[in-house]
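ingest -> validate -> predict -> emit
validate: passed (alphabet ok, no gaps, 286 aa)
predict: started
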Amino acid sequence: MSIKVKFVSSMKNLIITFIISQALLATIPSLAQVEESDTIQIGKTRIITRNLDSTETGVSEELLLIERDGSKDLTTSWFRLKAGWTNWLNESGGLGADNEFPLLEISPAHSLNIQLNIIEQSLKLNKDRVRLMYGIGFDNYYYKLKNDISLSSDHNGLIITDESATRDFDKNWVTNSYVTVPFLLNFNFALNKGKKKDFHILSGVNLMYAMQSTVKQKWREDGLKYKRRGKQVLGVNQLNIGYEAQLGYKNLIFYGKYFPDGIFKSADDPNLRSVSFGMIIGDFLN
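emit:
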């Protein structure tokens, strides 16, 4: 009788041991898988192949993952506005009028540069670090003349007429308008490794084509108000190339522009070059 009881007890222990061992072995296949992966980069798409080999079953499973870079190679901005101040550099490199034309002075605080790019596109060259920016727009320079003068031109070049003896101008503006085609390289940097690249440095050129010059004058005489406004031929350089640089953090971007060639094309005209700086206001349709 005691032999029978011992036998039953032993069988029970064997059954319990078998159940526990099977429960432990059930977790082993997931730990015994060997994972290998291969990555293929095609443009913005990454194809990742992972092989999962089970050491227990000997069965090989292949997992295919396709990842696509979410950033765009080409982005477009509409109606981007730049606004700032402009001034003249004379022949000696100083700000202000040419020494041979002292009457041709402007008020730097009231002389403005307004550039409206109708369209700008940004093409990715190296991930999100380097991009090529180009577009087309209109670049206008509003010069407020300090003295009571009028500007015109003939075959000999620019004519400066002193009208201070007869008129005291309330407003005396000259505007040069251009079609511009900018080409800029955009370099993006991050403050810390792995962070979003929020710092921007851009540099490049602007190709300029002069459309027209406009004068706008207002004055009072014998209690009456007079104004003179219209297109004027001032002998401006038809084609021009200028340099531009931009520095920004996120959406706060400042620009500077410099045109080494003279504003006027005749050698007898004032040797004046344009320098401007300001801020990019934004993209009105983005």
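The chain has two domains: 32-70, 74-283.
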